[in-house]
Specification:
Layout (H helix, E strand, L loop, with lengths): L2 H15 L8 H16 L4 H4 L1 H9 L1 H16 L1
Helix pairs in contact: 2-4, 2-5, 4-5
Protein name: Zinc-finger domain-containing protein
Organism: Streptomyces sp. 900105755
Length: 77
């Protein structure tokens, strides 16, 4: 294994080991994504209402990007 490969594996392992125990995972976060974004756009606090989804969106790049895109779309309308 080359050095860049080792660093990538190590980074992935560290992310896994430091996962917030409240993290609900991709399926649950995506199930809530539209109401989470709507509440945020309305000035609410979705992080307080769904702390497990908030933990997941902070930790999961793809889900976080989906959320940011959806929030941007909601705010444009």
């Amino acid at each position: 294994m080359t050095n860049p490969d080792r660093l990538s594996v190590r980074a992935a392992l560290e992310r896994f080991l430091t996962t917030d125990p409240q993290d609900v995972g991709c399926a649950e976060a995506l199930r809530l994504l539209h109401v989470y974004a709507d509440l945020k756009a309305a000035g609410g606090d979705p992080e307080r209402r769904w702390p497990g989804a908030a933990a997941h969106l902070r930790a999961c790049g793809p889900c976080g990007e989906d959320y940011e895109g959806l929030l941007a779309a909601v705010l444009e309308t």
